[in-house]
Amino acid sequence: MESASLLPVAFEVALLVGALLLLLVAVVAERKASVWGPLVGVTFLLSAVAGLWQWMDVADNGGGLFFSSQNFAIVRSPMVVMDEFSALAAMVLGTVGFVSFLGSWDLQSRLGKRGVEFSVLMLLGVAGLHMMTASPNLVVIFVGLETASIAFYILAGFTRKTRESDESALKYFLLGSLASALFLYGTALTFAATGSLSIYGANSIRNFFADQIVTDPGILLVGLALMLVGLMFKTSAAPFHQWAPDVYQGAPSGAVGLMAAGVKVAGFAALARIFMGGMISQVDIWAPILAVVAALSMIVGTVMALVQDDVKRLLAYSGVAHAGYLLAAIVAGPEGLEALWFYLATYAFMIVGAFTVVSIVNGPGAGPTPISSLKGLASRSSETAWLMAIIMLGMSGMPFFAGFVGKVLAFVAVEEAGYLWLVVVGALTTVIGLVFYLRVVITMFSSETDDSAGVDSLEVSITSRFAVVIAAAVTLTFGVLPWPLLDFVRSAIPF
Amino acid sequence: MPVLTILIALPFVGAAIIGLLPRRRPEVVFPVAIGVSVAPLAVAIYLLAEYSLDGTTFQFFENYVLSERFGIAWELAIDGISLFMVVLTAVLFPLAIAASASVRDKLKTYMILMLVLEGAVLGVFLALDLLVFFAFFEIVLIPMYLLISMWGSDRRAYAALKFVVFTAIGSAFLLVGIIVLGILAGDAVGATSSFDWRVMLSMDISESTQMWLFAGFGIAFAIKVPLFPFHTWLPDAHTEAPTAGSVILAGVLLKMGAYGLLRFNLSLFPDASVDLAPVLAVLGVIGIIYGAAAAIVQPDIKRLVAYSSVSHMGFIILGIFAFTSQSLQGSVFQMISHGLTTGALFLLIGMIYDRTHTRAISDYGGLAKQMPVYAGIFLFSAFASAGLPGLSGFVGEFTILVGSYLTLPVLTIIAGLGVILAAVYLLWAYERVFTGPLNPKLEGLKDLSFRELAIMVPLVVLIIGLGVYPKPVMDRIQPSVEQIIDRLEGASDYQVPEFGRLTDVESVVGVGHEGGGG
Q1: Tell me, what's the ipTM?
Q2: Lesser CB count within 10 Å: N end or C end of chain B?
Q3: How close is the nearest chain B Cα to the Cα of A427, in Å?
Q4: Domain boundaries, chain A
Q5: Short-list A369, A275, A370, A258, CA closest to A331
Q6: A–B: how many Cβ contacts below 8 A?
Q7: CA distance B139 to chain A (A)
Q8: Alpha helices in A195-310, H assignment, sequence order
Q9: Contact check, Cβ <8 Å, A441/B146
Q10: Confidence of residue B496 (pLDDT cuts 50, 70, 90)
Q11: Model confidence at B256, in pLDDT bands (50, 70, 90)?
């Protein structure tokens, strides 16, 4: 199916146009945050609407592959795919981008004229993230990954006057480039083994596996392994997670939300598309490997989070554990996709909300945030404390909060795929995880206040407040009534 | 009318009402909380009155499908067992809330948590869908954790965390078991999964699978009960919790474990239940003796009552796994009775703690002279807990012992020692606290206030009422218990011994009556 329409790339177009407009407006109004601020918000919302439009179009016309290139080696390899999978990714990324923009507004308005740059980077980063989910071509996926990564390297170091931020950015950049390189190398080896860079299409990896029996899988396995390592690094799955705590801790709190949420959504969506779209016939080879990595992530993330004294490090390690549950959903194969999307869509909001609370408490530009700075939050701003409690319980996987639904769905799918041991590991780590999430909650509600944190009631800006309210509302609503969202994400199968 | 859904919703609505109360008027929170906690009690009394005695076990059935594909339903019903658990819950919560007058700090949050806890507990006892059951079972942890860790005494953080970790590890196994069972049930009905308890009843599960699932469910419930050797969280949690927390923990939360064993383990895994019954019964008896022995030597009065719970819950486990109609009825009855008597003791300890701020037995002495009414009610509750004939504790323990003797005679004889030990630790504690010369530090203490009396009187009346005339309760418990025995006999090779089944309602009550008179 060919079309000259721009609909398949409407999401990226919306964000890029928004980013360009923003740069133009900034020339005359870079210090007037009230002028360019709304433009960013509207761009994010429009991009989400573009996703919805794509979704409806796919429902009517069935979606398809677009922008095929005629190439001497790769016959008509499509560059973009539009299906419910990519459309859902667009909606999730657009709304998560919007919420994290709200959450980081305190930081941006404080940055003066550099605030515009911050917003532009956010827009570009999200565009790159979506490219990872909407392309069947491994090279385009890589380009999307790099676009997003470079934007986030800069965001991590945005308050470069502080040493933590500097260190965080450098660490992220060095280790992140290594991961990108590994992914690219894996792409090359996969191409060497299969003769294709495309997941779908005439001469695709999928057809390669359908047509032939791989007798000598050495190069292919190395290629796949390298791609997997690259993506697991980006999504901070163990054992490639070591950068995350340092980077999250050092980066300005306002920037971490999008880094943590967006990359997880896009990384896991890309992983799911590569493995389920291209290599579903090889599920017996990759699923056991992913299962081991998933269990490792759950255990490492949970155990390490127990001993953290910094909220941002704690959230980073909890993110490692969450990567484990998400990987488990991929292990389950297509049956787990529903769980994967439900989990991603709700977790993304929770993590953005959590980092917004961190930036409310300790300032949006701050790096390290000891847990003790949350002491007495309930008496300083009881609303923030309650909302954060909802988000924490959501992350911990307590029933009636969205995290529970995602986890149970994933566990059901994993058990059906025959990995009972992984369910046991998942259930036990969930329980142990409760300890550190409850520690955050109880710290907020404890009577003593930290001297350094102050005892005055906390000023919460309307934008941050809005971001946290949305995050908590998503956590609670889809925890009690998950059915509408479940029916929705259920159709998001990759092409 | 979906009366059970309304029952579960009422406490949550109450919590929302309290949340919306104006911040500037903290004095209205307490009366409003009592008011809204009485609403579920009214519904519970309505259920008690309307519960039909025609032999149908599950009544007030409600079923709304939540997810067709995953076989999840909002499925509620009440039978003779859950009926009394619901009534017990609805009775104890208003009393516990009324006993919380000494809470000053963050009263609003406290009341919201209490009401959320009540709603969740009611959900546990009413849900027939295993996933919904699990959701309520698990969420109970959170308000209880916060109640202990925010309003508890000195070692509250440690005790609260221990409580959460122990019970949550149990529920991890429970969740895995439910998922495995749900997928098996899904295969049976041709869906992804099904969590309907009734679908699961109709399944034929292989014995080895039953063993594993029994273990998964059993660990969760055994920790909650708590069964020896999983009991170590209980003394800490009970001791450090605020008064209302202890009352609810002992009175209601422990019953969730016994209820889970009765409702799920026995019916869903009959073969495994029969095979493993000796193990559990032995652990129950160890709990009886160990709990009682530990209670004797406790220097802390609250800890003493906590250990007495371990002992009393051991009786319930023995009764459940003796598999006779009488022993099961006795267990359910003892669940009610233990909730009332231990609830009364914790309330009384809370009242004296509010005055003296000490729980050490050695700090007391001769209190009966200073607070005669208090001493009288305490002695009454201690007698009830120790199983004095004519009071509810006797009916429960005696019925358990009679029923268990038919299948487990040796264990039952050993368990009988627990009754004697109970008298030892309770009366010795009474002696040290209330008799002898008055400790000078206790001079000037006021006897029970009208509010405190109003809290204790309902419990006293119920304890006497159940002790003298248990028939109405037994009549309602019996059909549900018989159904469990039927299931055991039908699905495994277990045969109830002679006299172990009393299809004649009158003779069952006869057992209780003889006891009551003797």
Answers
A1: 0.90
A2: N
A3: 5
A4: 7-490
A5: A275
A6: 80
A7: 6
A8: 205-211, 218-234, 243-250, 253-272, 283-306
A9: yes
A10: confident
A11: very high
